[in-house]
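INFO batch 0412 | record 1 of 1 | parsing
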Amino acid sequence: MGKVYLTGAGPGDKELLTLKALRLIQEADVIVYDRLVNTAILKEAKEGCECIYVGKENRHHILPQDEINALLYEKACEHETVVRLKGGDAVVFGRGGEEALFLASRGIAFEFVPGITSAIAVPEMANIPLTHRGKSVSFRVVTGYEAPEKGYAQLDWNSFKQDETIVFLMGLHQLQNICTQLMKIGKPAEYPIAVISRGTLPDEQVIVATLDTIYEQAKNLPTPALIVVGEVVTLHHKLSIV
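INFO prediction complete | emitting tokens
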């Protein structure tokens, strides 16, 4: 029996990969990777390493989650080192916990290897600090897309009344609804919001606007895209002048 390393690949920029993740990628017999993993990272794999793509995009899955779980089990039975490589961090909306439970229930050794989550890295590298004295003393990270069987109304919008920074992951297709719901609970139409497309990568795009104007400006941006809502968004232009 081998071991599965549930590994975060960081937000996209290859240089934001952790040293531990890099070492495991170089040692891996098998790498099972997602769509958000920068494929340049796979060039670090040793000769003969089997790289298996199991990406997911907007409800289109190469493999359903249960088949990914089974694949990890199968490869761990055959090889010593299996790296499950996920964009950002493996357990921040990455379903790493589900995969760990599946492996543990079958006696397969696993280890979480933290990655730099896009929720923090993408806004920061776009010159939007998530907390800032006088603007925000807290932030929360929210999925912009929930399981269809739950319905989007699972989010308690009234809980967003506090004036804190909100980061929505996987939310571009819900952008209009997000803005509408925030205005319904009392956020002013001119409240600042940013959408960051392909953050930390050379083709990154950042659009800063307001709740009532962002949708038309950002709706056609390529994914992955991250949404930041809050007064800290106003710092982007001030910090981007040099």
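INFO post-check: Residues 3-113 form a domain with the Cobalt-precorrin-4 Transmethylase; domain 1 fold (CATH 3.40.1010.10).
INFO record closed
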